[in-house]
Amino acid sequence: MTDGGIHPAARVGFDTAAEAYERGRPDYPVDAVGWLAGELGIRPGARVLDLAAGTGKLTRMLVPTGAALVAVEPVGGMRRTFRAVLPGVPVLGGRAEAIPLADGSVDAAVVAQAFHWFDAPAAIRELHRVLRPSGGVGLVWNVRDEAASRFWAALTELLAPYRGDAPAGRAHVWRPAFDESDLFTALEVRSFPFEQRLSRDQVLDRVLSTSFIAALDEGDQANVSKGVLHLLDADSETSGRDPVVLPYRTDVYCCERSEHRSP
Known about the structure:
Elements: H1 8-16, H2 18-24, H3 30-40, E1 47-51, H4 59-62, E2 68-72, H5 76-85, E3 91-92, E4 106-112, H6 120-130, E5 131-144, H7 150-159, H8 175-179, E6 188-198, H9 200-208, H10 211-214, H11 218-234, E7 244-256
Parallel strand pairs: 1-2, 1-4, 2-3, 4-5
Antiparallel strand pairs: 5-7, 6-7
């Protein structure tokens, strides 16, 4: 987020690319979601917020827990796709810095692929506000495993000139805000290996749903698409293969709400 609002890359890119996001973005490892649910007490009787829920990639994996789920998503295109995919889960418009829920109204909150977009100190205060005592927060990122994939490493180089000031979760710029806050306990982290199987068209959806790429004009997007197809054909691990198998590392961070406040 910038200046308390939605970053332009997220506002434009995610609005126009919501359907590509749904087609191309990965889900999450079952064991990672299981660990998250166990740590946060996501089970029948719990009310759980999925903040910046996108198209509901994580939300749908929490439905079987039996918890009462509510989603908050700032981008209209994402909300429309979310409602089509998960009509039984309420989704509200709202930002992490101004969550449209009452004080102490949820038992747990999760944020997948999104916390790096937030004004971290403001979002931490809002999460503390809406959580009940001893409630917990879980942050999740699927991180491209570039050490295990030449394609991923080459793709990062291809996309770098277009990134601008769009934030990246792997940069961990959000982490100091948690480390310096007394509103939550120290973050505990677990990492899980994960693979995504994609058709070539889905690989294009995966790349074109990247916020700052989705915000480009049609000509630049066409150039990116050509570059992606060239990388697929040039790499022996992906050339001629359909589906393509791409590796990730899924990082899950959990912490608990604290009652302590600095004077």
